[in-house]
Amino acid sequence: MDINSDLPKPEGLFERIIQFSIQNAIWVLLFVCTWIAVGVYSYQKLPIDAVPDITNTQVQINT
Which residues contact 3 (CB under 8 A, 6 or more apart)? Predict the structure, then answer.
């Protein structure tokens, strides 16, 4: 029993992407894990001033 014989022929782009992802689950999982690792690595290499400062703004007035 072949998995391809049970699935109908995909008609649209999203159906083809989904069917490809199901048939190649290992490669898709490897691709996603690679991009997660690249994202974590890039996040750790960001300069410190690239992270926004979310503290309250304080103004000091000297008279």
Answer: 23
What is the residue-wise DSSP string for 9-62?
PP-SHHHHHHHHHHHTHHHHHHHHHHHHHHHHHHHHTS-GGGS---SPP-----
Reference 23, options 7, 35, 12; nearest CA is 7
Residues 8-63: tens digit of each pLDDT: 777 899 999 998 999 999 999 999 999 999 999 998 988 776 567 778 888 888 88
Short-list 25, 22, 29, CA closest to 3: 22
Which helix (H) or strand (E) segment holds residue 4: the answer is helix 3-6
